[in-house]
Design goal:
Elements lengths: L1 H11 L2 E2 L4 E2 L17 H10 L4 H9 L14 H4 L34 H7 L3
Antiparallel strand pairs: 1-2
Length: 124
């Protein structure tokens, strides 16, 4: 059902920086357009985190998802969508990363390298 909601949303909703992103659902908690808002990250955020917006709710209802769902939660970005260590704290354990989005190279002193880079650096 969630896939059907995403398909409906993709086929029926447009994105506009000046009109609040996907289906005019807004950018909160960001203060406005943010990096990734116009692509898959913003698309999924709008559909699942802004499920009470008119366009997201319409897509979910079209897929037979009741108004009480989905039960979307924010997960730890440092573990499940690692991008940089900037917000992960100085004692963050890189072995905790499960999904590594960025960076490919160390941009900051406390960044975790991608696993492939880590293996290469260790000669494995």
């Amino acid at each position: 059902r969630l896939l059907q909601a995403a398909i409906w949303f993709a086929q029926n909703v447009t994105y506009d920086n000046d009109k609040g992103g996907w289906g005019d659902s807004g950018f909160k908690p960001a203060g406005g357009n943010f990096v990734g808002s116009q692509c898959g990250q913003g698309f999924m955020h709008t559909l699942f985190q802004k499920y009470r917006s008119v366009t997201a709710r319409t897509a979910l209802r079209a897929a037979g998802i009741p108004d009480s769902e989905p039960h979307a939660k924010q997960i730890d970005r440092c573990i499940w969508n690692y991008q940089t260590g900037v917000q992960c704290g100085t004692n963050f354990d890189c072995r905790s990363v499960r999904v590594h989005h960025k960076p490919g190279e160390k941009a900051h002193s406390n960044d975790c390298p991608k696993l492939g880079k880590h293996k290469l650096q260790n000669g494995r």
